[in-house]
# Entry
Amino acid sequence: MSAVQSTEPSGPRPKRRLAPSRIILYSILFVAAVYYLIPLYVMVVTSLKGMPEIRMGNIFAPPVEITFEPWVKAWSQACTGLYCEGIRVGFWNSVKITVPGIIVSIAVASVNGYALANWRFKGSEFFFTVLLFGAFIPYQVLLYPLVIILRELHIFSTLPGIVMVHTIFGMPILTLLFRNYFASLPEELFKAARVDGAGFWQIFFRIMLPMSLPIFVVGMIIQTTGIWNDFLFGVIFAGQQNYPMTVQLNNIVNAVQGVKEYNVNMAATLLTGLVPLIVYFISGPLFVRGIAAGAVKG
# Structure
């Protein structure tokens, strides 16, 4: 009895037509993308125009003659108050605030999340509840108490003071993400390490840490975006000599003296938002992986 040999169909694969539901979905996504990209487009083209061309009034027209003078002026010459040193001073202040803020908050939150997920102690659930509660308290409610605390610690209007504030407010969400991520890792690895005699820090540094790159990237992006784009804490806690980029941008845009240079304002705005955008586009795939892994277990 001869076996029937199956053959695959030959010829070109038939083209799939777009279903109405897919057409509607793509249309909605296209409209949303255009809606969010139009302001960015206006900012970019305005920052590349000279003031005579801007006064013609067509904000959507591409520049007839491209000039980078507004970018140079925004970086090194624009007045941000009493001084006309550009937004570069605020850039380096933002770097001094953001880098320590990211390192300290992620270091503390990762240890918190690891302990809450793998080393349950008496009162751990209450401690975790208090941390979560802190994520829903409006920032404005805590401003005055924090001013008093930092004043008593003699770190008000200093870099350590503003870093401490960002660490405190980043702690709840970061601890939640790290706890959920560590809880999603195979429990057998933790138990095997305990059987082999590994302690708290050995397990953390040798087992958990090498497996946690995605969630560390998530924490870095969240803190970079939150700290770099912050205005409220910067204007209150940083002190005039440590004003971040956002505060100096506000001083440039809202200056009441002289001629309004919209091209310089747009260039300064783009320079201010450039760092979070670069960080996100470089580490975007790891961000998605980390968010998915850190949200599947409670």
Q: What stands out?
A: The radius of gyration is 26 Å. The chain has a mean pLDDT of 83. The CA atoms of residues 80 and 252 lie 5 Å apart. The chain has two domains: 20-67, 91-245+274-293.
